[in-house]
Write a structure and sequence with these properties.
Elements lengths: L3 E5 L3 H13 L3 E5 L2 H10 L4 E5 L7 H11 L4 E6 L2 H6 L4 H4 L4 E6 L5 H11 L2 H5 L11 E4 L5 E5 L13 E6 L2 E6 L7 H10 L4 E5 L3 H16 L6 H22 L3 H20 L3 H6 L8 H16 L7 H13 L9 H4 L8 H7 L2 H10 L6 H9 L20 H18 L4 H9 L2 H6 L2 H9 L4 H17 L1
Parallel strand pairs: 1-2, 1-3, 3-4, 4-5
Antiparallel strand pairs: 6-9, 7-10, 8-9
């Protein structure tokens, strides 16, 4: 049975046009022009989602929202409005929309149908998306001219799918020229991608920015399945999560922290937790890790991964603590998006005093951005605020010391400094750690307990447990 969508918009032409677009995508879509009719339709049928204009009359958009919350709380609400003033006129604000059942908000006279499609598909269970596969095998390749700024790039080995590709996949011939090698609905073939990689030396795949949230959801599903599959190599598991994390952080930094993206962030953190906790050999892989991409997005992923591995060494660690920590690590530099590009892309070690002063504001700017979303836990904001504080008091923005800095913020701070050291000097993790520990000023900045826990990241956990057991037995004998 087709999934039902209701479009409630006072502009009859626009409502019918959007409904027609959704029908072509395989949905059962209906439209109406006022709130009274919308409520009547919802009384007679169960809709998966409603695209509701806050500007409708004869039962206002606010009244329809209350009706949905009371009578159809499982219906997804995608809200459209002409301006922010419409929200204020309805007696609503962004902090209360989630409580009203609103999952996405689009502001402006014209909202692209593709954006609405992305919002709907973003809220659907991934398993239902699999049903949409329509092509057995692969479609013909299609060469086309498209602007580079329309695409998201991912390393070819970091893309994995299940059964069917959910969005168009491209390779780049040159700037502005692309080949669509897989169409949405094609059967996925790892062998085909490996052929591009090995025979044609293709390093990157590309997909359109409008498909970014779909990519994140698909890769989260793949990562979840991969983490539980003992037959899939650890290297593949880490690669999938790396590519997913980079696209997630890029989406947050370029599109803002939308509720839908944040929800996928929680799933991502859970997948990171599963990989860290279900793979005792992860320490071996991390010894030889050599990802030296200096981008903001890769950096945030590495800080999240190392932070999760450090906190695993503590007895009080839990899934909730890990989720909070990795989420904060992924967001720790979000305030940099408010800085000028030349400062954002520069190592703070090379900055002038004036530039450094601007850079140091990114912690507080990050908290300001996160505070716009009530769904972000306070602990995440606090870690983002303190991740550059150091127990010696030489950190920023406040220069606080020791126990006044959250332990989780200290962990992210160490992982952040270590990652920069590793990437800037192109050192594999053990060598980077040795170089850091040989610097007395660096050792002074960080907790000895956390540094010791970081050392354990690169040691065999079974040997540690064995040594602890032997020490315990020796102490009992005494």
């Amino acid at each position: 049975m087709a999934i039902r969508i209701l479009v409630a918009d006072p502009d009859m032409e626009k409502g019918k046009e959007l409904a027609s677009f959704l029908v072509k995508l395989g949905y059962e879509a209906d439209s109406c022009m006022n709130g009274r009719t919308a409520q009547l339709k919802m009384y007679n049928k169960q809709f998966f989602a409603i695209i509701l204009s806050l500007d409708i009359q004869e039962y206002s958009g606010g009244q329809v929202l209350k009706f949905i919350r009371t009578n159809h709380p499982s219906t997804k609400v995608i809200l459209t409005m002409k301006s922010e003033q419409t929200l204020a006129d309805a007696g609503l604000d962004r902090n209360t929309l989630a409580k009203q059942g609103v999952f996405d908000v689009f502001i402006g006279a014209e909202v692209a149908s593709k954006d609405i499609q992305g919002a709907i598909e973003g809220h659907r269970d991934y398993r239902t998306l699999l049903v949409q596969a329509s092509n057995e095998g692969a479609s013909e390749e299609q060469e086309m001219d498209l602007s580079d700024d329309r695409f998201v790039q991912i390393r070819i080995e970091e893309f994995v799918s299940i059964k069917a590709v959910q969005f168009d996949i491209f390779i780049q011939l040159r700037s502005g020229r692309y080949v669509k090698i897989l169409h949405a609905g094609d059967t996925f073939s790892r062998e085909r991608l490996d052929k591009y990689k090995n025979e044609k030396k293709v390093e990157f795949l590309y997909f359109l920015k409008e498909d970014r949230i779909k990519f994140i959801r698909v890769q989260n599903f793949v990562a979840e399945k991969a983490a539980a599959n003992a037959n899939i190599s650890l290297n593949t598991k880490v690669s999938v999560v790396k590519g997913l994390s980079q696209v997630f952080v890029e989406a947050v930094f370029t599109e803002g922290l939308k509720p839908l993206i944040f929800d996928q962030g929680k799933v991502l953190c859970d997948n990171v937790y599963e990989i860290i906790h279900k793979n005792d050999d992860l320490f071996k892989l991390m010894r030889d890790y050599s990802v030296f991409d200096p981008s903001l997005y890769t950096h945030s992923y590495l800080v999240g991964l190392f932070s999760g591995m450090i906190v695993k060494q503590f007895e009080w660690e839990s899934r909730i603590i890990n989720e909070t920590l990795v989420m904060a690590a992924l967001f720790h530099d979000i305030g940099c998006t408010k800085l000028a590009p030349e400062i954002r892309e520069m190592s703070y070690l090379k900055m002038t005093p004036e530039q450094l002063g601007l850079y140091k504001a990114h912690c507080e700017l990050g908290v300001q951005i996160l505070s716009e979303q009530p769904v972000v836990p306070q602990a995440v904001k606090q870690i983002v605020l303190q991740h550059h504080e150091r127990i010696s008091g030489e950190g920023f923005p406040y220069g606080i010391r020791s126990h006044r800095i959250l332990v989780l913020a200290q962990i992210v701070g160490l992982a952040d400094e270590f990652t920069r050291h590793m990437v800037d000097n192109k050192l594999q993790p053990p060598a980077a750690l040795r170089k850091m520990l040989s610097d007395p000023s660096c050792v002074k900045r960080h907790s000895a307990v956390i540094l010791e826990s970081f050392l354990k990241v690169f040691a065999d956990p079974r040997k540690i447990a064995q040594n602890m057991g032997q020490a315990h037995e020796e102490n009992k004998g005494k």
